[in-house]
Specification:
about 525 residues; alpha/beta; 7-stranded beta/alpha barrel; immunoglobulin/albumin-binding domain-like; 5-stranded parallel β-sheet; 5-stranded mixed β-sheet; 20 helices; 1,4-alpha-glucan branching enzyme activity; Glyco_hydro_57_N
């Protein structure tokens, strides 16, 4: 008997890190690693579940920058080169490990794994979106959108036109790729405030994913906490994150990924091997980077790591997936007794956790779904869209402004380290609005420049850059990206307003920042394209 539902939601995002102007850009490897360790392994999981006639439903947000990069010919060619190099390195490692059966066994595992990745990549014609679109069409996967460049929307509400441009562009980009409009949205960083409601409603969005605080602190207080969605006065539904299931994966103390049998993330051949040996497989500038060949398991808080044992890791995956399923089952049974509609447990995570940070993550998802299909469970897997279709009557509340960042507010993205970003962006937003209201009947060249100005502004608005600055990771790169896009925007603004457009420079920038080929700058002005977008 079904007493409730579990909704697993994977947020898939990469900032736009396409750099054809740079030889072997370090940042492009972020995407290639995610393709190797997260996206293709998940595609394999979904395909195997379908082959085994396992009924399941899962939700993935795929952000517009990630969609764009997964469809990009240049990046796909670069990834194919990267994957073939990885296979070549494993072949050398198998030979190098001769005489050490344990080490050689791991090298063989990686060689088999990389060859399987290549096989799947070829199967989908070197375009991973072909796989995700297939799962969407078959009804197993509900793909939701995000803002156009993962901009933290509440920090833009001084210029609501800029928020609307982010949403409109995201919807149009989604329709162009998937072929139909999205039902839901992952608000970047789960950052919500009241100003977003009418815009999301206007563009046909039915629901969004929120931090637990947004629902738990809603007004009036929700009757069932995060076990049920709440609806704003605009009939926009918020699904709050379940904290119990979140802690079992995210927590550094009790989370599954920290188990000693799992693969150690921070130990990679790219740093351990002699430079003369590893040089062809790291950055061409001689910078040591991860190769994806990690031979050790977590072991414990010691530098004396033991070799990774795949069999033991898979046994632990089964144990943890069963424990996770049993936990959700217990929650459903307990909540069901006190609710009119069956409860729903919403489990949102970054996709990149599953496979990149937690190597065994896709295997965990596979085992959890298989457990969930068994007769002992009192829940079914569903998506937020499917749940609302079955149970459209939702309590009306005003969700609390919040995010899933530290402190549950926006302070990760707005603090002493990065506050300067918004002053410049807000000025550019005002200039873009002015352009859209001024150039109502542009020449073809002006239109190209206006569209590129919109692209540059949106790329500068990405929440990734202030996040990186706050966390002190690749700060130089993040600052450079913000400044590059602001500088390009300002040059375009000056060229347009002075009627002195540099065609050669414009053409080059269009090739570099080629996201959103169908963007229309008029989304910032009075002649918005909302009706066209929603009707698809």
């Amino acid at each position: 008997m079904t007493k409730g539902y579990v909704s697993l939601i994977l947020h898939s995002h990469m900032p736009f890190i396409r750099h054809p102007e740079v030889e072997d850009a370090l940042e492009e490897r972020w995407l290639f690693e995610a393709m190797n360790e997260c996206y293709i392994p998940l595609i394999e999981v979904y395909d195997n579940l379908i082959k085994d006639n396992i009924k399941f439903k899962i939700t993935m947000s795929i952000t517009p920058p990630l969609m764009s990069m997964l469809e990009d010919e240049y990046l796909n060619n670069r990834y194919l080169e990267y994957l073939k190099q990885s296979i070549e390195l494993t072949e050398k490692e198998i030979a190098r490990a001769s005489g050490d059966d344990e080490l050689q066994g791991i090298a063989i595992f990686y060689n088999d794994r990389f060859n399987k990745l290549l096989e799947i990549y070829k199967e989908y014609d070197y375009r991973l979106m072909n796989a995700f679109k297939k799962f969407d069409k078959l009804g197993y996967l509900e793909i939701i959108t995000c803002s156009a460049t993962h901009a933290l929307l509440p920090l833009m509400n001084i210029n609501p036109e800029a928020i609307e441009a982010q949403i409109a562009t995201a919807i149009q980009s989604y329709i162009d790729c998937i072929g139909h409009a999205p039902k839901g949205i992952w608000l970047p960083e789960c950052a919500y405030d009241y100003s977003l409601d009418h815009i999301l409603k206007k563009y046909g969005i039915k629901y969004f994913i929120s931090e637990s605080k947004a629902v738990l602190n809603a007004s009036p207080r929700p009757k069932h906490g995060t076990y049920a969605p709440v609806a704003t006065s605009n009939e926009l539904c918020a699904f709050g994150r379940d904290m119990e299931s979140s802690k079992q994966v995210w927590s550094s103390f009790m989370g599954y990924p920290g188990d000693f049998d799992y693969r150690e993330f921070y130990r990679d051949l790219g740093y351990d091997a002699p430079m003369e040996y590893i040089a062809p497989y790291i950055n061409r500038g001689g910078i040591r980077v991860d190769t994806g060949l990690k031979y050790y398991r977590i072991t414990g808080s010691t530098d004396n790591k033991k070799y990774y044992n795949r069999k033991n890791a898979m046994e632990k995956v089964k144990k943890h997936a069963r424990h996770f399923a049993e936990g959700r089952n217990y929650q459903i049974i307990s909540a069901y007794q006190h609710m009119e509609n069956p409860p729903i447990i919403v489990c949102p995570y970054d996709t990149e956790l599953y496979g990149h940070w937690w190597f065994e993550g896709p295997d965990f998802i596979n085992e959890f779904i298989r457990n969930s299909s068994e007769n002992w469970t009192y829940y079914e897997l569903t998506t937020p869209g499917e749940y609302l279709k079955k149970y459209p009557r939702v309590q009306c509340c005003s969700p609390s402004p919040s995010s899933w960042g530290e402190n549950g507010d926006y302070s990760v993205w707005l603090n002493q380290s990065n506050h300067w970003v918004y002053r410049d962006l807000h000025r550019c937003q005002q200039k873009m609005i002015r352009l859209a209201n001024t150039y109502l009947d542009p020449t073809e060249l002006q239109k190209r420049s206006l569209n590129q100005a919109a692209r540059e502004l949106m790329l500068g608005e990405a929440s990734d850059w202030p996040f990186i600055i706050k966390n002190k990771t690749t700060v130089e790169y993040a600052v450079k990206r913000i400044n590059i896009h602001i500088d390009r925007f300002n040059k375009l603004y000056e060229d347009i307003t002075k009627n002195s457009i540099d065609i050669k420079w414009l053409s080059n920038v269009e090739k570099l920042d080629n996201i959103f080929p169908n963007i229309d700058y008029r989304i910032y002005g009075p002649n918005k394209l909302q009706k066209l977008i929603v009707n698809g």
